């Protein structure tokens, strides 16, 4: 049996309009972009519906986890820790928990969807479509951004009842929320492409994503750390996502928000380009 032609990484057939450089079917000029957007929109809808139908697990569970973190750490440290000289600890903790939940769920959405499709075998139904790598990327990562933002908003709404963190600049909040979710959605696609079974995916999340998130200043300011660990924190891109996001609430942060924006924006571009390259090559998508 011949392998499907129009899959990411496989050169399409030729027509009067010539080959499609994005890897999909060749079409009449001017209609290719419309077709790509229609395909991406359909796949995006399917991915959003996938996590929304089990929202008690995908949305409710992370919100509950964040509330438990807040109740435990806030109760223990509220009277003993003041951050930035004036910010109550519970208020300081809330943006960190929001961003941590957003990042972890954006990663989980793309990675779990792709690995489940690979293991159950239904990925073949996408491989036989003329979807381009760009369509795959926009749909999967777009859905992960939606899930991450919805979870983050849910955590914020529930936890701000304990100690409203205020809002200094909503632009910084939105920029870092979207960039962080895009970066983690892209990284989730990379993990989903690489992993061939669930324990590999669990190892990626438990030994890479979780430690880097927990050690990124969610529960503390890095200025409270010894010198060595302060320096080490500056090599963690997750730190810049959380610190820049927190700046939008308080107007102060451990580093300049512009430095955080440069690091997070650069990391997002690099990981997005890497993800598109893997999709275009068909890495571990075809037998």
TrEMBL record:
Record-annotated ABC transmembrane type-2 domain positions: 53-282
Signal peptide extent: none
Pfam family, one: ABC2_membrane
MF-aspect GO terms: ABC-type transporter activity
Record GO cellular component, one term: ATP-binding cassette (ABC) transporter complex
InterPro entries: ABC-2_transport_permease (IPR052522), ABC2_TM (IPR013525), ABC2_TM_bact-type (IPR047817), ABC_2_transport (IPR000412)
Protein location: Cell inner membrane; Membrane
Residue ranges of the region described as Disordered: 1-26
Domain of life: Bacteria
Similarity annotation: Belongs to the ABC-2 integral membrane protein family.
Protein name as catalogued: Transport permease protein
Lineage, opening ranks: Bacteria, Pseudomonadati, Pseudomonadota, Betaproteobacteria, Burkholderiales
């Amino acid at each position: 049996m011949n392998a499907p032609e129009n899959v990411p990484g496989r050169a399409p057939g030729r027509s009067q309009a010539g080959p499609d450089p994005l890897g999909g079917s060749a079409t009449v000029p001017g209609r290719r972009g419309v077709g790509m957007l229609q395909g991406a929109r359909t796949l995006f809808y399917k991915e959003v519906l996938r996590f929304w139908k089990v929202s008690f697990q995908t949305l409710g569970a992370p919100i509950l986890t964040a509330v438990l973190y807040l109740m435990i750490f806030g109760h223990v440290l509220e009277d003993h820790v003041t951050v930035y000289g004036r910010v109550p600890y519970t208020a300081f903790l809330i943006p960190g928990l929001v961003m941590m939940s957003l990042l972890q769920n954006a990663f989980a959405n793309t990675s779990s969807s792709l690995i489940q499709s690979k293991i159950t075998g239904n990925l073949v139904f996408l491989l036989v479509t003329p979807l381009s790598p760009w369509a795959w990327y926009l749909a999967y990562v777009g859905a992960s951004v939606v899930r991450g933002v919805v979870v983050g908003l849910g955590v914020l709404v529930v936890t701000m009842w304990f100690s409203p963190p205020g809002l200094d600049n909503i632009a910084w909040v939105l920029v870092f929320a979207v960039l962080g979710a895009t970066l983690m959605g892209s990284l989730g696609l990379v993990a989903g492409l690489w992993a061939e079974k669930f324990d590999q995916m669990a190892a990626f999340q438990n030994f890479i994503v979780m430690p880097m998130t927990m050690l990124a200043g969610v529960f503390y300011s890095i200025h409270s750390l010894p010198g060595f660990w302060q320096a080490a924190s500056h090599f963690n891109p997750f730190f810049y996502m959380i610190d820049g996001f927190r700046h939008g609430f308080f107007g102060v942060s451990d580093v300049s928000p512009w430095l955080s924006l440069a690091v997070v924006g650069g990391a997002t571009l690099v990981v997005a380009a890497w993800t598109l390259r893997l999709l275009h090559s068909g890495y571990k998508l075809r037998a």
